[in-house]
Amino acid sequence: MLDSNAEVWSMDCGRELVMDTDVRAAGAEAKAEPPGRRATLLGMACMAASALLFMTGNAVIKHLAASGIPPVETVFFRSAVSLVILAPFALRTPGVLKTRHFGAHVSRGLIQAASMIAFFYGIVHITLVEANALEFTSPILATLMAMLFFGEPVRTRRIVAMSCGFVGAMIALRPGFQALNEGHGLIALASLLWAVVLLYIRKLSQTESALTQSLYIGMVLTPLAGSLAAFVWVTPNLEQFLFLCMVGVTATAGQYLFAQAFRYAEMSAVLPLDFTKLIWSSLIGYFAFSLIPDALTLLGATVIFAAGAYITIREAQLLRQGKGI
Q1: Any alpha helices (H) in the chain, and if so which ranges?
Q2: Most buried in the list 32, 94, 122, 137, measured by CB within 10 Å?
């Protein structure tokens, strides 16, 4: 998931934990050395690899639930492993936890926890492609919320893009023409909550570094998920434990590659590669779960992604120009 400033390491949307890159530092590097063809290709490769890692993590989440591990326990391991990976970087960064927005960090952490838990439970009941399609709606919902609650400009292009995203969702889900279950509802809720998180990211990114935000999210999410998981705890065997750790590793590595993609190349060059999530989710769903992707679901997801990508790229371009979309 991306915010309109392109400052996000989007996690998961297997409810991957987002990490917001320090745009000022990245921008300074970009000015010092404009990205060439090789750097652009490297950025595109990072984005494609990031998409693969995220979708692999989603598949593992689905597998763990089928093997008897409660999704909230997976959320706990995912967050805890990420904290362990980030710890060495935090120790080498004095004052990394210093902030004037402690309340905002906690609020974002609670909302993100709810989003992640809803996503992890929802993905158990629907296909990876359907989850992917609904996940793509978050940037569109975030833009709508910014317009409704924060007075951001209501422009024709925004309205058209959001309308296309809504049409895409209707194509993918086809309410009234196919059976919808609790999984669809949970993923829709997760996407809505994630849209709220994106607004927090946009605000916090003005003053907080990537590492600071990520550490606070981990410190809120890990104990919260752990306390909830204690009520349904299933002690994992060795195989399950390795898979649980894999969820955290793939999410953290995916976030890093996502951020690197934007450091190497322009958003317009790398963001379309995030669409490969749909390809990976289709292939993994087929080979791992014997699920054949539905053509209309793929079409709807494509329309949703195109609408969200347009909004994201367009807003980032106009942000640099000091205009509204």
Answers
A1: 23-32, 37-66, 71-91, 102-122, 128-135, 138-149, 156-173, 182-204, 210-229, 238-264, 267-270, 276-289, 295-321
A2: 137
Please tell me whether residue 175 adopts helix, strand or coil conformation. strand
The answer to whether residues 192 and 1 touch, using CB atoms and an 8 Å cutoff, is no
Distance (Å) of CA 66 to CA 12, 106, 172, 290, 291: 19, 32, 25, 14, 15
* The two three-digit tokens of residue 4, written as one number: 């309109």
Half-sphere exposure of 250 toward its Cβ, with a 13 Å CA cutoff? 23
Under DSSP, the state recorded for 70 is -
Greatest mean pLDDT range, 4-8, 270-274, 304-308: 304-308
Q: What is the pTM of this model?
A: 0.82
Q: What is the pLDDT of residues 232-257, one digit of tens each?
A: 999 999 999 999 999 999 999 998 88
288 burial level (CB within 10 Å; 0-12, 13-18, 19+):
middle
